[in-house]
Amino acid sequence: MVFFRSSDATISIPCASIIRSTGLQVPVQDQVEEKNDIIQGCRAGRREDQQRLYNWLAPRMLAVCRAYSKDRSEAEDLMHEGFMSVFKHIGQYRGQGSFEGWVRKIMVNVVLARYRKNHWLYPVETLPETTQLGWQEPDVRLEAAEILEMISELPPRYRMVFNLYALEGYSHQEIAGQLNITEGTSKSNLSRARQILQARLLDAGHSYLNPEERHESQG
Amino acid sequence: MNHRDDHPLDVYFRSHLEDATLPLPGGGWEKLEAGMATRPRRLYPLLWQAAAITALVMTSFLAGYYLARFETSLPSSSMATLTSFRKDLHSVLSGPPLTNFTSGSEVYGSAQTEASAGNTSIEGSGQMMAVVDRPEKHSAATDPSMHTGIMKVSSAGNEATLIAVKMRPRAASLIVLPERLFLAAARGRHSAIQSPSYSAPIQTSQKTKVGGLISPVLAASGSRGHAEQSYTPNILAAGSGQEKPLMTLSSGLYAQVPVSENISMKTGLIYSRIGMETAHSSLANDLTLASLDGGPYAANTSVGQIFLAGENLVNLGTFATSNTATNEGNILQHLDYVEIPLLLNWSLKRKYYTLSLEAGLTAGKLVHNAAYFITQGTRFELGSTENIRAMLWNASAGVGLEVPLAKRIAIGIQPGYRFSLRSINPVTGYRPHMFGFGTGISYAL
């Protein structure tokens, strides 16, 4: 992560990912200015800047949403709803911290809202918190899309708890508050999710992707 | 990342997904742009409701006010009950012709009244005296200048005092309004009186009433439940799941005891229901996947959590497993209360109707709590909603319109609004507010 200071805001941008996702091959300072232009344009409601923002961040955000979704279609829905929320509330971004992190936070909030609305039926588990899991890294290197597919096959609440804890850095207390469950349930859900994922990693010889998706993810 | 238990598996997934990207769908931006163009603007619900309530109350007051004004200013020709009185008054008025009035002239008259309207009639006689203060205005017989005087009319059991009598050439009438008001005026060749204001000691015409009512009720979510989360209609249309309040019926008996001419207290015993329906696209499917491992399972709604276990789980799971095409269904939550309202009622009685405003508190005891899953026309018991408080406290306000059917019987409608003073579920913070449209019959004792 590299931090830059521009005239009106300090934004932190993971340069490598910007260049990868946008194809920009321009000097770093120009990148910063361009991102600031995009943000300012979105604040002014300019549609062309909204499209540039979409092109810039959508590939990353689609991956974020995919981790929380049961399939690709739901992930796209979530991402679209998230971007609508971003465009609506972009005036609230004060230039404090990473803009991409701010957008990601909105995406996760949209996911949480959708989750609470969908009212999944979920098992009330009482696994002991102290369940110890062994860890064994898979022999094969997995693509990000394959890992996302693994996560998406978790039961919905396991998936939510695992993502919020392992990927977003939420505490169990925060997860309990967001999902309207107890901390104990959050811990047991996380433990169970890890068990399932570990088993699937060990079974990594099996492909979780169809050939087309694997090609896409490698492309 | 701000936490602590960095399990190697978490690190593995995090490191592999940190910069992960996925190829965008074709036409993704165009779809998003189209969605932004058609996305309906969402009004802030509480503001919207507050405006609706304010409008309802103000409309009621204005309607009452203008209806009252309308009656007092009603042309006498439209009041059939005045016909005989006008003749009586005309015959007994005495005094010089208007054109002969001079400043300070006193005009005396006597009136015999026999008029009625609504439930009130006045019979009696009285004296009228008017002092002419602007004679120059009377040069023309059509001049509408006013003069003042006092007239007293005594009637059986009541004495009515007419104050600030205004005289107007060629136009006067006496209108006796329901309950307590009368307005004297007459059409006469010689002089006339008309009263814009008056007072009269009266006997209350309100009686203790008992009645029954039935009311469809629509409960909406409160300000703190999950239902407040934003949700876009286009996604709802895809069937991902949606909460909506159920239209339910409340019914009961009440008694209304007058405490003054216009004010009465109302209480009763009402059976009411708060209902929530949650459309769910995959509840049964989830159960199939769960392989009936004995549970317990739970479903969350804004109202509260429903645990599903034992026989209920087996029944639904078996059905879901054997009906693989069935993954559409709705969760229903019913919360039934027996309520005792204590309401203050203000009413404005007229000949053909009574308008009322009422407001107060209602205490409700939870008597039934059930949750169901309905799929393919089959209803399964899920259990009950957890953490629902035993008592419900509501504040309510409403307007009413009652029309007499017979001497003691009246039929009425009563739209109203109630809101819960505290959440009915402390865990979810669900705090309903309800719109009702009561219809009922009352009997005056």
Mean pLDDT of chain B: 64
The radius of gyration of chain B is 34 Å
Order of helices and strands of chain A: EEHHHHHEHHHHH
Distance between the termini of chain B: 73 Å
| Helix/strand/pairing category of chain A | mainly alpha
Helix content of chain B: 10-25%
Low-confidence stretches of chain B: 70-102, 105-204, 222-240
What is the structural class of chain B? alpha+beta
Explain this structure to me?
In chain A, strand 1 (2-5) and strand 2 (10-13) form a beta hairpin. Chain A is mainly alpha-helical. Helix content of chain A is 64%, strand content 5%. Chain A is built from 10 helices and 3 strands, in the order E-E-H-H-H-H-H-E-H-H-H-H-H. Chain A has helices spanning 15-22, 28-43, 47-67, 72-89, 99-118, 144-152, 156-167, 172-179, 183-202, 211-218; strands at residues 2-5, 10-13, 122-123. In chain A, helix 7 crosses helix 9 (183-202). Chain B is of the alpha+beta class. Helices cover 19% and strands 43% of the residues of chain B. In chain B, the strands form 4 sheets. Chain B has an 8-stranded antiparallel barrel with strand order 7-9-10-13-14-16-17-18. Chain B has a 4-stranded antiparallel sheet with strand order 1-2-3-4. In chain B, strands 5-6 form a two-stranded antiparallel sheet. In chain B, strand 3 and strand 4 (158-166) form a beta hairpin. The longest helix of chain B is centred in the N-terminal third of the chain and has 28 residues, at 45-72. The radius of gyration of chain B is 34 Å and the shape is elongated. Strand 3 (122-123) of chain A pairs antiparallel with strand 11 (297-300) of chain B.
